[in-house]
Structures are given as structure tokens and as C-alpha cells.
Amino acid sequence: MKPKGEKITMLTAYDYVTAGLVDEAGVPLILVGDSLGMVVLGYESTIPVTMEEMLHHTRAVVRGTKKAMVIGDMPFMTYHVSVDDALRNAARFIQEGGAQAVKLEGGVNVAEKVKRIVDCGMPVMGHIGLTPQSIHQLGGFKVQGKTPQAAQKLLDDARALEEAGAFSIVLETVPAPLATLITQKVSVPTIGIGAGIGCDGQVQVINDILGSFTDFVPRHAKQYANLTDIIKKAITDYHEEVKAGKFPTGKQSFSMDEGILDGLK
Ligand code: KIV
Predict the structure, then answer these.
(1) Cα 123 versus chain centre, distance
(2) Residue range(s) of every CATH 3.20.20.60 domain in the chain
């Protein structure tokens, strides 16, 4: 798609039903992001997310997906300690989770691991810029690559990932002109989130575009729906109807032969 100039869409999904909807809409890439930790599991960051949690949700997404490529997001410290660790955990996403690819955060610092995973036949998506697993080092959710050194580092990271065999690179919260330059300098597609229109594709956390997670709405997110209000209204209506004895009606109930009932009485 990159050589043809066709924009690439990616969305996160964490469950069977949502994955099915994303897939049916024709979105070609589904990321089971470790954002799961924040938007589904209620953690304050992505750092507590475990392999078991990721695998559980990856399997559900895979079951709901017919066409899209499912990418499993490797959680914090599951690919840092050693190449062996990285290989084993990447393989779990493919073998146990049923994903077709994995994503991991970092550039030059993870290039060797990316190469070894790719050498074993597992496609890898890179992720640079604002990498939430390093949030304590980055000092918060801030735009990355704003100084000459930081911008050069991002370009070096992107090139290192390309060289290591990554099939695509997520650019998160990077100034739009820098993301455009990186996109021009690497042959693999860049997928932006808060990185402007010049990337080859875009990714969003599904809860952000659906308005179903409102604890924290990043500036780069656009709400295409407000599910929180719709869900709240449905729950309130149900609650009130049960209390008022208005639900269920005959329409939601089942009848039986009165004779059988008389016998029981
Ligand atoms: O975990 C996630 O959802 C991500 C995307 C924001 C790229 O890494």
C-alpha cells in the first residue's frame, strides 16, 4: 500500500465482538494494544499488563477476526532482558494467541531482538516516539523529537528498525513534519498516532474514537461517537424499568400449557 500511496488504517481491539466489527469494516490491521491495561483493565499505565492478560485478549480478538492481520503488543519487560526472552514471548503471541505479528517499543535499543524475532519467521512492528512503557523515563505523555538530538535519534531508531526487518513502524506523538520526514526516509510503512497526516497510515485506540473511555482523552484522538452517553442511558433506562416493574413484558417472557401448571398447583 505504501508504494501506491494508499493510506493504511489500524485500530486497537481487545475482545471478540469489537474485533469482528473492526474486521467487517475492512480495517486491515488490528492491534491488541497493551493500552488494554488502561482502557479495559483500569490500570493507570500500560506497565502492569502481563503476558497472560495480553494472550487472553489476543485469543478473543483472533476469534472475532476473519481478514485483518492481528498484531499482539508485547508488554513491558517481556522482550528487554534477553533475546531468548524476546523470542519466547513473541512466539507465545503467535502460537498460543494466534496473532500474525507482534509489536514492541523501542528503536536502536531493541533492533537486535527485532532482527532475531523476524529471523524466526515472526513479523515485527516497531513503535517509537512516545513509548508508554517508558513513561517514567519520558516524564509524562509529551511530544517527542522536538530538539535536534531527539529528532535525529528518532530517525536513527526508525532506520534501525527498518534495517532489523520490522515490517512497519508506529510513530506516536511526534511533530507532524518530523513524522513526514521519517516516512519519506524509510521504505516500510509508518503508522502514526498523534504524528500528523504525513504518515503512511493511522492508528487509534478504539475506545478513544468511540468515546467509550473518558478518563483521559488524548489530544490526537477524534471522537466519532459518544458511546459513554448511549451506554449510560441504556443502563439507566433498564435499571428504572426493573425497579418500576416495567421490565420484562410479555414480549420478553415465555408461556406454557396452563394445564401443566394447574397440575402442579
Ligand atoms: O497499546 C496501544 O494501543 C498502542 C497504540 C497506541 C499504538 O501501542
Answers:
(1) 16
(2) 8-226
Q: Left if phi > 0, otherwise alpha if psi is -120 to 50, otherwise beta: which for 98?
A: left
Please write the tens of the pLDDT for every residue from 143-160.
999 999 999 999 999 999
Asked whether 36 lines ligand 1 (CB < 6 A), one says: no
The answer to whether the CB of 30 is under 6 A from ligand 1 is: no
Task: Please report which confidence band the pLDDT of residue 217 belongs to, taking 50, 70 and 90 as the band edges.
Answer: confident
Q: Which atom of ligand 1 is nearest to the CA of 12?
A: 3
Q: What is the mean pLDDT of residues 226-238?
A: 98
The third-level CATH classification (topology) of the domain covering 8-226 is TIM Barrel (3.20.20)
**Dist. CA 69–CA 203, nearest whole Å:** 14
Give the single-character DSSP code of 28. Answer: S
Most informative mutation of 12, 18, 76 for ligand 1 (most atoms within 8 A of CB): 12
Query: Helix 111-119 and helix 83-95: axis angle, to 10°?
Result: 50
Pocket test of ligand 1: the residue of 205, 206, 207 to mutate, having most ligand atoms within 8 Å of its CB, is 205
Average pLDDT, the chain: 97
Q: How far apart are the CA of 218 and the centre of ligand 1, in A? A: 12
At residue 190, the pLDDT reads: 98
CB of 171 closer than 6 A to ligand 1? no
Supply the DSSP string of 228-248, one letter for each residue.
HHHHHHHHHHHHHHHHTT-SS
Q: Has residue 215 got a pLDDT over 90? A: no
